[in-house]
Amino acid sequence: MSSSPREEMILGDWTFHVINIKDKEMYEQFIIETKYPTHLWSSSFDYVWAASNPKSTLVLWKIVDGLLVTFKLTKKKALQLPFLPFGSGDAEKVSNVLLQCLQFCQKWNQQRKGRKTVVRVVTDRQLDFLRSSRLFHQYFRYVPLTGDDRHISVQKLIDLSGAEFNNVRYCKNKFLKDHPNALVRRANRADFQALLNLKQEWNNTFGKKYTKISDELVYEKIIKHHEELNHIILVVELHQQIIGMISGGVLPHGEAWGSLLKQRQDYYGLSEFLYVQFADEIHKVDPYVKTINLGIDSGPKGGLRRFKDKFRPVYNASRYRLSLKSKF
Known about the structure:
Aminopeptidase; 7-stranded mixed β-sheet; 2 domains; alpha+beta; single chain; 6-stranded antiparallel β-sheet
């Protein structure tokens, strides 16, 4: 295994590119051309790029038969695909590229104590697309994963109409009543240290409750480079101090995603208020966006699932893991 100053990496007889923030435009173009639904939360470029770390998991990419394939090289040197390839191609073409890439990964991983060779996550609608391929049925198997990607309605969250939104409406109004001077605005570069301090305070309070959320590197990279990424960060300011933040943006396929949510303790209703403000901001940016993907919950009984249920998801995307059938 070797790497070059041109941000390339050679693994076996394949050459890969190390992901770079400047790759975002390329990713967006390939996503626009993709035939299957590209709504998986963890395939959003900002997250994929921010999660790449030479000390843990390095994100690589390669063009294979005209499709953009993303790879993850883990700390233990296992090579996996985090999601499906992007680009113009029917199910048979996508399956063929998947087969080539997983066979390469399998050969690589077998030399490293048999690390697992998988496509880490595909959604139910992506799986439906793949099932139309003869090649897919011949070579691949899949197993369900715990937790769904939760998609909420932008317009419903703005309107907050009806009994189903009683709780969110009450929490939002309570926050505004208790803190009428709260200011909502876009973050800027001068907020960087204040946002780092907010994250540290969150770690010491809410972070102890949501122990499965580990986003130190992602958080810092996104807030530091949010302008280059065209990543929306809203902050709530009270008495010239940032007490909460929420981030995300509009994706190439026309849906929005919610990325980061952090707040200080002891501000009842702030989380609900942030989500409503974020939906309103997304609507201002692009009135045609209908849904926001809030990402994975923590399973059927988790506190994160209960919290996201407040916002009445209109679509819960089941998730699956792909691998090659044992004979291949």
